[in-house]
Design goal:
183 residues, AlgH-like, VC0467-like, 10 strands, UPF0301 protein EDB95_1257, alpha+beta, globular, 6 helices
């Protein structure tokens, strides 16, 4: 298991009951002594970018719920750190944020493809020591992020694919029921 840091995936343990995080995978983008921040990768919403941003007319890119914190904010992950100024590199081939107006222009012109960028409303956040306590309590499994997981289609398979990244001993968890009492 990896220590929490930018570019690490948090994979919800199979029986986590919190409805915000059941069977989710979160990409950590910040981890500091004062707290942590990341985005749920596998909770698509019924909106597209053009539904939310008038300047994005014609861009029917899906929007995902990044988490329950500040759901009035929009964030994006992408594979274009050299093309989108202001990006923050997380791991090889994966960056967070940058110049939004230029990003819209690059999408419209076809200079970046829809499959190499994802948009999120809100984020997942932890206060000082909270994530470390959750990790000690085995709420999350951790592994280094891979671009193929962050942009995986269909997004509903991300949790299972992230567990497979961890190896055979974790792959068996992909078949666990959400609530073993219903078995």
């Amino acid at each position: 298991m990896e220590k929490p840091a930018p570019g690490i995936l948090l994979i919800a343990e199979p029986f986590l009951k919190d409805p915000n995080f059941t069977r989710t995978v979160i990409l950590l983008t910040e981890h500091q002594d004062t707290g942590s921040l990341g985005f749920v990768l596998n909770k698509p919403l019924e909106y597209t970018l053009e539904d939310l941003i008038p300047e994005a007319a014609g861009l029917k890119l899906p929007i995902f719920s990044g988490g329950p914190v500040q759901v009035d904010t929009l964030h994006f992950l992408h594979c274009h750190p050299d093309t989108i100024p202001g990006s923050r590199r997380l791991v090889d081939g994966l960056s967070w944020g940058g110049d939004f107006e230029l990003t819209l222009s690059l999408l419209r012109n076809g200079d970046i493809t829809p499959g190499s960028i994802r948009f999120y409303i809100g984020y997942s956040g932890w206060s000082e020591g909270q994530l470390d306590a959750e990790l000690e309590g085995k709420t999350w499994l951790t592994v280094e992020a891979k671009r193929s997981i962050v942009f995986h289609q269909p997004s509903g398979d991300i949790w299972k694919e992230a567990l497979r990244l961890m190896g055979k001993e974790y792959e068996v968890m992909t078949n666990f029921p959400i609530d073993p009492q219903l078995n």
